[in-house]
Design brief:
This protein is an alpha+beta fold. It has 3 helices and 6 strands; from the N terminus they run ααββαββββ. Keywords: Apoplast, Secreted, Signal. Homodimer. Belongs to the plant dirigent protein family.
């Protein structure tokens, strides 16, 4: 009689454990992939008067430039590092969901464009983790998107 109860208890706990284990379909239903994300990062370039609020600084400039004013000729030769707040809307004063950290450099004389390398580092309750970016940024395009 004792072994019968032991076998029944073991079957009961196996069934209980199996029913509590999420199936692949249930996990997929809870974690739907995100198809569209919209974030804004706010770059405030240091200009000798805004050290407290600046989130970016020119760290390299051509011989004719300086480190507080972007160079002429489409800013060619300037290198900027940044640590900008990321928000969910276009308002700098909205709560930050993370930081955009990296650099950009102006790489063409004839066209106003930049090359970027940076990470979005998320640290809010809803957004965690990081996304890395690298590549050309056609600044003159009104809207720049990735697909």
């Amino acid at each position: 009689m004792g072994s019968k109860n032991l076998i029944s208890a073991a079957i009961f706990f196996l069934l209980l454990d199996w029913s509590a284990t999420p199936t692949v379909a249930r996990v997929r239903a809870r974690h739907r992939p995100c198809k569209r994300m919209v974030f804004y990062f706010h770059d405030i370039l240091y200009n000798r008067h805004n050290a407290k609020n600046a989130t970016a600084a020119i760290v390299g400039a051509p011989a004719w430039g300086n480190t507080t004013i972007l160079a002429g000729q489409n800013h060619f030769g300037n290198v900027v590092v940044f640590d900008d707040p990321i928000t969910l809307d276009n308002n700098l004063h909205s709560p930050a969901v993370g930081r955009a950290q990296g650099f950009y450099l102006y790489d063409k004389k004839e066209v106003f464009t930049a090359w970027l390398g940076f990470s979005f580092v998320f640290n809010s309750t809803e957004h965690k983790g990081s996304i890395n970016f690298a590549g050309a940024d056609p600044l003159m395009n009104k809207t720049r998107t990735s697909r």
